[in-house]
Specification:
With 583 residues, this protein is of the alpha/beta class. The chain has 17 helices and 30 strands. β6 and β7 form a beta hairpin. It is globular. Bound molecules: guanosine-5'-triphosphate, sulfopyruvate and manganese (II) ion.
């Protein structure tokens, strides 16, 4: 129980609306989590995995329709439509609440109402944000404890928080996809989500609070909430670890980069990589005038597809204990999990994500394409000792990544901060399975924030420009990357994963001012030979092609950018228009 009259009156109000059988306050304690897991195993919401091989691990299967974020059913419910902007769906707040409450009414009947007081970012940081999620799903409750910070200490913080916390209401309902709504009320500091229990739709501290509402708060308070990983890199020519942030749209490689395993050869040369965060960064200007970043989360909600011992052993290792898997294959013989691409040993006696019997020759894939794992970030073998620093870490460079078969070079550098904001504003990337809708469709996704910016996109870009003006000559350099260029056979040209250290190396050297560059219309490109490819199996001609900008393709691209800018419902900052006109 929390001593805060605003909390108590909201719980009372929700109790009357939802009519639960009982109320359980979640404190995240080990004994409570143990109890929840045993209850969830009893109701088959969780399946216990092999506790010798994978201690503390469980499998969950979702409703067939409920496997990813649903952007077309996600709304910003602010007073004025223009404040949500053309990149968001808008719904008048009172109308939205009426509809959502009619769906939520009595929907907890015969069920438990779990009340989860949580903190996004370290609760000892002056920058943390408190929230309370109410849910009737024990799977959501367990996942929230992994992904955010839930503890007795956090609960105590509410007694002096007044009204300064976010209301997060989640109702499982009957998972009706036609009545599924993920609604954000920035002016009321509230989120309501009904009819989905999938991560980004239901773990309301994550995308809903820490990005959509936090981006709105950041605009008002002078900071940035971004879809970015944070990593530290030790390089032989730097005395200290340098930290960088990198944004990529959903499903384009953040978790992999944040935890990348570099080759022994690079380790021997004196490089090492550490992870601070893999999905959501909060960025502020510190007392020293530099940009500082902190991880808003405390867990990893990672995609399983693509994880294996070769490409990303650190990500695999992160998911080997105290992890909840969703929608992967169950090996019935040894009660472990499997997904396509994990290794060459598909289980013989297996059950697929839908609960049907499965084997490799049955003609169906067994793991849902957006199957996920939720693991404590403390599992990460390369976790930075700074991951929890209440001040965050100082940022030396910002990377803006996209997934594009053509056009965007492997790496390039912005001429200055505003040019970097321009590059962020024109990011165009292929859609992935992280969200419903067609996969592989190229779309503009500024800063990887298209689905997560909780306010008008013009104001967001202006806010980035304003942050740069405040940072002045202390602003980090901004870079673009694209690991995903393909050849005529549709095969990736760049080996990616651990070899991305070679690109990061170029970026860090550029931050030290030690390399020269080539000019291009998109930005500064590496000079031939400056990105090391020794020891790689890569066709030199193809490598050269991904390091350069094709003039005709860029020319076509500028037309698409103009078209995109013309869709904005408030003026695009003039600094960006000027850059476009010169490009
Ligand atoms: P979300 O959690 O949805 O935001 O995804 P993410 O941005 O964290 O992406 P993640 O690291 O889960 O990777 C997504 C997909 O990209 C996986 O299928 C990876 O195998 C693939 N991927 C990641 N890095 C690379 C790379 O360097 N090269 C190639 N070719 N593929 C990569
Ligand atoms: C994403 O889609 O960007 C994710 C997964 O990281 S979710 O948390 O569901 O948004
Ligand atoms: Mn993500």
């Amino acid at each position: 129980m929390i001593r805060n009259k605003y909390v108590q009156s909201w719980i009372q109000e929700m109790n009357e609306l939802l009519s639960p059988e009982d109320i359980v306050w979640v404190d995240g304690s080990e004994s409570q989590m143990k109890l929840f897991k045993s209850i969830a195993c009893g109701t088959l919401e969780l399946i216990e995995l092999n506790q010798d091989l994978m201690p503390g691990c469980y499998l969950h299967r979702s409703d067939e329709s409920d496997v990813c974020r649903v952007e077309d059913r996600t709304f910003i419910c602010c007073e004025n439509k223009i404040d949500a902007g053309f990149t968001n769906n808008w719904w008048e707040p009172n109308e939205a609440i009426n509809k959502l409450f009619s769906i939520a009414k009595d929907s907890y009947q015969g069920r438990i109402m779990y009340v989860i007081p949580f903190s996004m970012a370290n609760p000892n940081s002056e920058f943390c944000k408190l929230g309370i999620e109410i849910t009737d799903s024990i799977y959501v409750a367990l996942s929230m404890v992994t992904m955010s910070r839930v503890s007795k200490e956090v609960s105590k913080k509410f007694s002096s928080a007044g009204e300064n916390w976010t209301k997060c209401l989640h109702c499982s309902c009957n998972c009706d996809k036609d009545e599924r709504y993920i609604c954000h009320f920035p002016e009321k500091n509230m989120v309501i989500s009904v009819n989905s229990s999938y991560g980004g739709n239901a773990l309301l501290g994550k995308k809903c609070l820490a990005l959509r509402l936090a981006s709105y708060m950041g605009k008002k308070e002078g900071w940035l909430a971004e879809h970015m990983l944070i990593m530290g890199i030790k390089a032989p020519y730097n005395d200290e670890v340098k930290y960088i942030c990198a944004s990529f749209p959903s499903g384009c490689g953040k978790t992999d980069l944040a935890m990348m395993k570099i080759s022994e050869e690079y380790e021997k040369k004196g490089y090492s990589v550490e992870c601070v965060g893999d999905d959501i960064s909060w960025l502020r200007i510190g007392p020293d005038g530099r940009l500082w970043a902190m991880n808003a989360e405390h867990g990893v909600f990672g995609a399983c597809a693509g994880i294996n011992r070769k490409n990303n052993p650190n990500v695999l290792e992160t998911s080997r204990k105290n992890t909840i898997f969703t929608n992967v294959i169950l090996n019935n013989d040894n009660k472990t999990v499997w997904w396509e691409g994990l290794d060459d040993n598909p289980p013989e006696n297996a059950t697929d994500w839908l609960g049907d019997s499965w084997d490799k020759d049955c003609g169906r894939i067994g793991a849902q394409k957006n199957s996920r794992f939720a693991a404590p970030i403390t599992n990460c073998p390369c976790l930075s000792k700074e991951y929890d620093n209440p001040n965050g870490v100082p940022i030396s460079a910002i990377i803006l990544g996209v997934k594009r078969k053509k056009m965007t070079p492997l790496v390039f550098e912005a001429q200055d901060w505003n040019h970097g904001v321009f590059i962020g504003s024109i990011m165009s990337s292929e859609t992935t399975v992280a969200s419903s809708g067609k996969v592989g469709v190229l779309r503009h996704d500024p800063f990887g924030m298209l689905p997560f910016c909780g306010y008008n996109m013009s104001d967001y870009l202006q806010h980035w420009i304003d942050m740069g003006a405040k940072l002045g000559d202390k602003a980090p350099k901004i870079f673009g990357v694209n690991w995903f260029r393909t050849d005529d056979k549709e095969e990736y040209i760049w080996p990616g994963f651990g070899e991305n250290i070679r690109v990061i190396d170029w970026i860090l050297r550029r931050c030290n001012g030690s390399l020269d560059v080539e000019m291009s219309s998109l930005g500064l490109l590496p000079k031939e030979g400056d990105i090391k490819i020794d020891g790689l199996v890569i066709d030199e001609k193809k490598f050269k092609s991904i390091c350069n900008l094709d003039a005709k393709m860029w020319n076509d691209e500028t037309k698409k950018i103009k078209e995109f800018y013309s869709k904005f419902d408030k003026p695009v900052p003039r600094e960006l228009i000027e850059i476009l006109n010169q490009s």
